[in-house]
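Task 17 of the worksheet. Students: predict the tertiary structure of the chain below and write it out as structure tokens. Keep your answer in the requested format; marks are given for formatting as well as content.
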Amino acid sequence: MVGVTTATSVGIAALRDMRTDRRKRRVSDMEWFELLYRVYLAALIGGFVVLYLSSLVKDTPFTASQIDTVLADGPRTVGLVMALVWFLGMRSGAQGGPVSVEEAEVRHVLLAPVDRAAVLRRPAVQRMRTAAFAGALVGGAAGLVISKRMPTDWSTRPAEYVICGAAAGAVISASFVVAALLVHVLRVPRWATGLLGTALVAWQAAAVFAPAHPAAPFTPFGDVSLAIMDVPGAVAVAVLAVIAAAALWLSGRLSLEALARRSALVSQLKFAVTLQDIRTVVLLRRQLSQEHMRETPWFRAPGVLRRDPVVARCVRSLAHFPLRRLVRMALLAVTAAVAFVGAWRGTTPLLVAAGLALFVLGLDIIEPLSQEIDQPDRTDSIPLERGLVHARHLTVPALATVPFVAIGGAVAWALEPHAMTLVAAALIGIPAALAGVAGAVVNAVKGAPDPAGSGDQGLYMPPEVSGMTTVIRAAWPPVISVIGSTPVVALVHAHENGDNIPAALVRTALGVGIVITLVAGWVRRRDEIAVWFRNATHPPKPAGANEETT
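Model answer:
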């Protein structure tokens, strides 16, 4: 036994030395100027978005009754968010997540005679630490926005809201990794995680929508966001810490097959994120979650669609969407509706969350167009203009948003049961959903081959110009989706000023419709616009200009 223990300890020491040397080599090969420039861009953009835009929020401060409502219902609502995160974490663990290591460690280190738990514990801790840090950033930003609506005479200072929000965000995000690790190491079947996760979410949701309901399991975690550190909250955090420690201690039970499958996919995913290739990121995420199209369609495409093969192909593609994708799209529509209601009640920054949710919904709903762009050789073999083919792919996704608009309208009416809610749901939901699709279309089409051959122009630009150009290209599609949420602002202003609400919504919806029409026209004439812009910036030289005169 002594010999075995010594060999194991030597192997772990060698592994630590190998990881240290590999990290040193990576740091030595890193261009410090480029790294500092990336940090500069991230800090500049992040500071602008969080600090400057939050300073623009001029929402009405909470009244005393609203503050009492926040203190009473806030912990249960935050607990519902954590229940949803816990459910997603359980699903991730059942699908082989959340830990991923490099392929070399899977092939060599994990097959070596060393303690597998000692090898995998560090990646698990790093994954948990990264999730907690990201959650702290989001929670701190949410706390900063909420502080703008608190009365000036309220005893709590803005810094305390940021700290409490960051703490709650870190706990909620870390719980995703904890749930995934626990399910993975215990090898809980996927069907069992679905049932258990659904039961936990339903339990917490009952506590939110039925205040007389008994206490839910995640409500104590919501106390952290409001700095209510009572005994149940402290016990809940301590239990979560114990579960996290147990999951880390059992990390040696992680499936080697799942780690091998995820290693290659995660490497490609990181590379795609570096290149800002959202389409590849979406495809790799589906592979990680083992999401496949249905073999049997939900319905058959009508025979009249055979007159237009492009439209027929779109309908057949939507008919093969898996159930989990449809459920995810419905949840995104619900999220957008809840954000719209929150903006109507006075928290305007929630419009950004609604726009981003609809943008992600649009990425799923334009799957036929994305597949068309993924295979440009087939598109070029058709005796039609590429822009015309892409434009014909827009009709079906636009019509496919109708059921999700109806779902969002039902949720909005459940939260605000008024007759005007249904009118507002139609005049807000339809433009917002179409704007989400438009943003996703811009993101997909801009990845198509450039007919003007100017895709390498950024290589000859200064780093400052090239970096900002890249940022603008990446941010523009979500911005279009967020623009579609602006009718809510018109709704609030019309209600405050006593104006005609339907007329104000129609005017704003028409403005959003102009943006959507411009996007459709850009898709139709993209190739011609690119060639015209190329000729305008680099005019062709006259014939014989380069010939030597005699």
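Marker's comment: The chain has three domains: 31-60, 62-275, 292-536. Residues 292-536 form one domain.
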